[in-house]
Amino acid sequence: MRFLSVAVLAALALSVPVGALAQVKFKRCLSSAEIQTEQLVRHGVFLREAGNRCDEMLPGTAAKWKKFDERFGPRLKSQTDRRAKMFTREFKKDALKVRTYFDGRLVTYHRNVPLTTAYCAQADKMLDDVNRRGWGGFTEQAKVVQNEVLLDYKACSGG
């Protein structure tokens, strides 16, 4: 299975003009609301991937993600739609292509993190927390990815 992942990644890498996407940068800065949107989208991807992947090692994590997704799917979709508008503003001609690149990079990362007992236990704990605390708990958890977001995007000063 790991070989298949490597083969798929290699095929994707060969099909994308490296020079074009490797240098992708947002032209403008992102507001604090846009940074939060990116944090929420990235955290949702993490919980989905971790929940689904850890289910083999720690049964029930996929069901916990599904429960959260069923409850808050419209809010998650709203954040994803906001993010799509952000990409359209920044990359008018290639918005879908660039967003697909960013999404692919994010999903590929989370699908290739080595599964360990500690990783899955932490994901399980986080899924329990968001199911217990709801959207507020999810947004609190998502704040920890701010530094990661700021490596990719420039924040507007003052907001």
TrEMBL record:
Keywords: Signal. Residues 1-22 form the signal peptide. This is DUF1311 domain-containing protein.
